[in-house]
Amino acid sequence: MFTLLIVLHVMIGVFLIAVVLLQTGKAGNIADVFGGGGSMAAFGARSAATILTRVTTVVAILFMVTSLALSLVRHKQSSIMQNQPAKQEAPKTPAQPKQ
């Protein structure tokens, strides 16, 4: 279960990175980098949500859910391990020499 969650989490993380990198900036001009977009407000009008922004939102939520699931599964596994009594081995007696 834990391994499956890790694999799913990594795949979702890679997909989230790809989706975020595919998006364009708010005002994606090169002039904005050098201060040419001074008339644009930082929190200006938003454009309509595209399919890419919706996919980003869904994948980000899935990433958070898998993160929480991994945390809960790991916590449950560690608490189970702590509640088990330690295995006690029988004391080894030295071999008796043959006479």
Low-pLDDT runs of 5+ residues are none
Please count the beta strands (DSSP E, at least 2 residues each).
0
Bin the strand percentage.
under 5%
Q: Specify Rg, calculated over alpha carbons.
A: 27 Å
Quote the distance from N terminus to C terminus: 56 Å
Describe the structure in your own words:
- The protein has 99 residues and is mainly alpha-helical.
- Helix content is 55%, strand content 0%.
- α1 packs antiparallel against α2.
- The termini are far apart.
Short description:
The protein is an all-alpha fold and 99 residues long. The protein has helices spanning 2-22, 51-83.
Give me some keywords for this one:
mainly alpha, 55% helix, 2 helices
Topology:
Blueprint: H1 2-22, H2 51-83
